[in-house]
Specification:
Layout lengths: L2 E5 L1 H7 L9 H10 L4 E4 L10 H11 L6 E6 L5 H8 L3 E4 L20 H16 L3 E6 L6 H6 L4 E5 L1 H8 L3 H17 L3 E5 L7 H7 L5 E4 L1 H10 L1 H11 L5
Helix pairs in contact: 2-3, 7-8, 10-11
Length: 249
Amino acid sequence: MVKLSVNVNKIATLRNTRELGIPSIVKLSALALDAGAAGITVHPRPDERHIRPHDVDDLAALLKKYPGREFNIEGNPFHGMINHCRRTRPTQATLVPDSREAFTSNHGWNLAELAADQRAALKARIADLKQIGCRVSLFMDPVAELMAMAKAVGADRVELYTEPYAARFEKGDFEGAVAPYAQAADAAHQLGLGINAGHDLNLQNLRPFLARVKNVDEVSIGHALIADALEIGMPETVSRYVAACGGVK
């Protein structure tokens, strides 16, 4: 069964518009876990536009009450995310090459274009994270040829960036949308890499994606899932996404 990790950034975005502490990230994350989510994802940015350091700590404490569930911290390894990982020891660290000013993550690591010293620095960050017990995933575009480079720098998994898939799916071009992901996943699997996926996946495009892209271990979903939860509630929403992943609570 493909695991569902719920990205709770957008809950923090709403909370941060006031100083009341509501909605509570911890309470809503617990509802998601109780409804069958396999884990919780956060992406703490340097400007703290949504997730703040205390959220990382609070969620790490929450996950300790749910044995077998996973805590996934995303972020740029050169912008402070490793400090969060050293402090809280998440199950997984997902390394994303976004700029400080990025509105949202909008591309994966192009390892072929990194200078040798940049690639060495990334490899060192990955080694540091593995030393403290984190599984390391690299946020990657669906380019089959880059999977070997992800393996070479020490990644355990890749997370395929799915916004381009979602955009083409919305326009009715499923075959064109999904083909690069199927190829990239096959290349990653043959190299022994685990496979995650995330960005703009939703209840319409998730099940078809997983039917065609083989050996996916985990999907991380935030924006669409939180939007759905505003309409139908967190427990029901998570149950539907878990079902779309091929399982039931």
